[in-house]
Design a protein that fits this description.
Radius of gyration: 23 Å
Number of strands: 14
Largest sheet: 6 strands, parallel
Bound molecules: nicotinamide-adenine-dinucleotide, D-Mannitol-1-phosphate
C-alpha cells in the first residue's frame, strides 16, 4: 500500500473487530497524567489502563505528556491519540490491538502551563512517570537531586521547567494553589524504592525554591500526595523501522506511534493510594504492602541479566538480547551468574526468582529485536542496584562474586573502548568513560558507581573495586570468550 491513511477515530469503524475490542468509549475523561509516554508506557500502563476501563469503567483516560521532545505528542495528535500495540510471543503468535487510553497529549517542554494545569485538575487523581533512570537527575549515594546540576538549578530558578522533577513540582505547585484533592504519584522506572526516591527528589527540589515558597509547598505536597513505588516488567524494545508499514499491511492504516513488546506484562504497585485509582488490580496488576521482594527480583534478576548480556554480548558481536542469550559461550555464563549469584541474592530478600530456563527463554525471545546498545545506556545509573549490590552482599557473606564482577568489568571495558569502536553511550557514561581514558582504573570506576551500595569490603581487605580490576585484567588477557569459559565452563 503506497500511502495508507493514518490511524484515527474516523478509521475506527473500518478496523477489524478483534483489533478494536476493549477501546474505551469516546469521551471517557482524563484521570491520569503520564510524564514520558515512550514505548514502555504505551505498551504497558496504557494497555492495562484500557483494560481496567473495560472491566470497570471510570474516567481514567490518560493525558500523555512528553517532557523533552515532542515527536510522540505530534504522532499521537495526528492519530487522535490512537496507536497499536503488538504483543509478540516467542511461540510465533502476534496479537495486534488498537489502544485508545490516551485521550489528550501535551508537550511539557513547549506547553508548560498546559501541563501544570493537567496535573492540577481536580479530575486528575494519578500522575505516573517513565522518564528513564537518568531522568531523575539524582545522586544515588544520597537519594537527593544531584548537587550542582545546572538543569535542576535553572528549573528551580523559575524558567519553564525542563527536568522531570521540575515539571512535576510546577504542576503540584498549581495544584496546591487550588488546594486540589489528594493525588497519587507512581514512578514506573527501574530504580530501587522508586516511590520513596521520587518523594525525596520532590522534597529536595522544594528546598531549592525560595524558602517562603518551597517550605509551604512541600508541607502541602507531603500532606496531600502519596508517592507509591511500583515494579514494572515487560520487554518493550524501541520501535524498529518498518513497524508503521507492518501495521499498515495488517490494518490498512499507518501508525507512527506503533509499539511491539512481549506478551508478558507484570505490574506490582505499592498499595498506598491517596485517592481513587483505575481497577488495575482487576486486569493483572498486584497491589501489595511491601514492594521490596518484588523489586529485588526485577532489578537483580531480570535487569541484571539484561545488563550483563549487553556489556558482555556487544564485544562478542551480539546485537540483541536474543543473540546474547543464544550465544554458545555467553548463555552458560548468564545462566551461572543468575543461578549462583543473582537469584540467591534476590531470594535472600524474600523474593521468588523465576527458574533460569524460564527467565532466559523469556528474555531470549527470538521474535523481539531488543537491542543491547539500548540496554547498555545509562550504565552508571543502572549497575549499582543490578550488579554491585548483589555482589557486595555476596562478598559480605564470604562468597566470591566472580561472575558479577566480570559483568561490571565488561562495562568498564566498553567505556575504555574508543568511541568509534563501540555504540554511542549516554552523557553520564561518556563522563565515566572520559575518566577511565584519563588513566583512572576500574577501581575508580567502581567508586564512581558505588552510590548507596554498602559493605564493599570482604574479609581479605580487598574490596569489590579490586575484584572488578582483576576481572578487567582477565578480560584483557584472555579475551571475552576466554574469560567467560574460565568463569563458567
Ligand atoms: N522498555 C522496556 O522494556 C521497559 C521495561 C520496564 C521498565 N522500563 C522503564 O521505562 C523507561 C523508559 O523506557 P521506554 O522504553 O519507554 O524508553 P523510550 O526511550 O521509548 O522513552 C523514554 C521516555 O523518557 C523520556 N526521557 C528520557 N530521558 C529523559 C531525561 N533525562 N529526563 C526526562 N525525560 C527523559 C523521553 O522523553 C521518553 O518520553 C526505562 O528507562 C525503564 O526505567 C522500560
Ligand atoms: O533502560 P533500562 O535498562 O531500565 O531498561 C532496559 C531493559 O532492561 C528493560 O527495557 C527491560 O526490558 C525491562 O526492564 C523488562 O521489564
Amino acid at each position: 500500500m503506497d500511502h495508507p491513511p493514518r490511524l484515527s477515530r474516523a478509521a475506527r469503524a473500518h478496523l477489524p473487530a478483534e483489533a478494536v475490542r476493549g477501546l474505551p468509549p469516546e469521551g471517557a475523561g482524563v484521570g491520569i497524567v503520564h510524564l514520558g509516554p515512550g514505548a514502555f508506557h504505551r505498551a504497558h500502563q496504557a494497555v492495562l489502563t484500557q483494560e481496567a476501563m473495560a472491566a470497570e469503567g471510570g474516567d481514567w483516560s490518560i493525558c500523555a505528556a512528553a517532557g523533552r521532545g515532542r515527536s510522540v505528542v505530534d504522532a499521537l495528535r495526528a492519530q487522535d491519540g490512537l496507536y497499536t500495540v503488538t504483543d509478540r510471543a516467542a511461540d510465533g503468535a502476534d496479537r495486534l490491538r488498537v489502544v485508545g487510553a490516551i485521550a489528550d497529549t501535551v508537550s511539557a517542554r513547549d506547553e508548560p502551563e498546559r501541563f501544570a494545569v493537567a496535573v492540577a485538575a481536580s479530575t486528575t487523581h494519578v500522575v505516573t512517570l517513565t522518564v528513564t533512570e537518568a531522568g531523575y537527575r539524582h545522586d544515588p549515594a544520597t537519594g537527593r537531586l544531584a548537587p550542582d546540576d545546572p538543569e535542576t538549578a535553572a528549573d528551580a530558578a523559575g524558567r519553564p521547567p525542563r527536568t522531570a522533577v521540575g515539571q512535576l513540582v510546577r504542576g503540584l505547585q498549581v495544584r496546591s494553589r487550588l488546594d486540589g484533592p489528594p493525588l497519587t504519584v507512581l514512578s514506573c522506572d527501574n530504580l530501587p524504592a522508586n516511590g520513596r526516591l521520587l518523594r525525596d527528589l520532590v522534597e529536595s527540589f522544594c528546598a531549592l525554591l525560595p524558602e517562603r515558597e518551597g517550605g509551604p509547598l512541600w508541607e502541602w505536597i507531603s500532606a496531600r500526595t502519596a508517592f507509591c513505588g511500583t515494579v514494572v516488567d515487560q520487554v518493550v524494545p524501541a520501535a524498529e523501522p518498518g513497524d508503521a508499514e507492518r501495521v499498515a499491511a495488517a490494518l490498512g492504516y499507518r501508525d507512527d506511534a506503533a509499539v511491539v513488546g512481549e506478551a508478558y506484562r507484570s505490574w506490582i504497585i505499592e498499595d498506598a493510594f491517596a485517592g481513587p485509582r483505575p481497577a488495575w488490580d482487576r486486569v493483572g496488576a498486584r497491589l501489595v504492602g511491601d514492594l521490596a521482594p518484588y523489586e529485588t527480583v526485577k532489578l537483580r534478576c531480570v535487569n541484571a541479566v539484561h545488563s550483563a548480556a549487553a556489556y558482555l554480548g556487544l564485544p562478542l558481536g551480539a546485537a540483541t538480547v536474543a543473540d546474547a542469550v543464544g550465544h554458545p559461550v555467553l548463555r552458560p555464563f548468564l545462566a551461572a551468574l543468575y543461578e549462583r549469584e543473582l537469584a540467591p541474592s534476590a531470594a535472600a530478600h524474600g523474593g521468588e526468582p523465576p527458574g533460569v530456563e524460564a527467565l532466559l527463554g523469556r528474555l531470549g525471545n527470538p521474535r523481539l529485536r531488543h537491542r543491547l546498545a539500548q540496554i547498555a545506556l545509562q550504565g552508571a545509573e543502572k549497575l549499582p542496584q543490578r550488579l554491585l549490590a548483589p555482589a557486595a552482599e555476596h562478598l559480605a557473606a564470604g562468597r566470591e562474586p566472580r561472575l558479577a564482577c566480570l559483568a561490571v568489568a565488561a562495562w568498564a571495558r566498553l567505556l575504555r573502548t574508543p568511541p568509534d569502536e563501540r555504540p554511542a553511550l549516554d552523557p553520564g557514561s561518556e563522563r565515566v568513560a572520559a575518566g577511565l581514558a584519563a588513566a583512572r582504573g576500574p577501581r575508580e570506576a567502581v567508586d564512581l558507581l558505588r552510590g548507596p551500595v554498602p559493605a564493599l569490603c570482604g574479609g581479605s581487605g580487598r574490596d569489590l573495586g579490586d575484584r572488578v580490576a582483576d576481572a578487567l585484567a582477565e578480560l584483557e588477557r584472555e579475551g571475552v570468550e576466554g574469560a567467560l569459559r574460565a568463569a563458567a565452563p
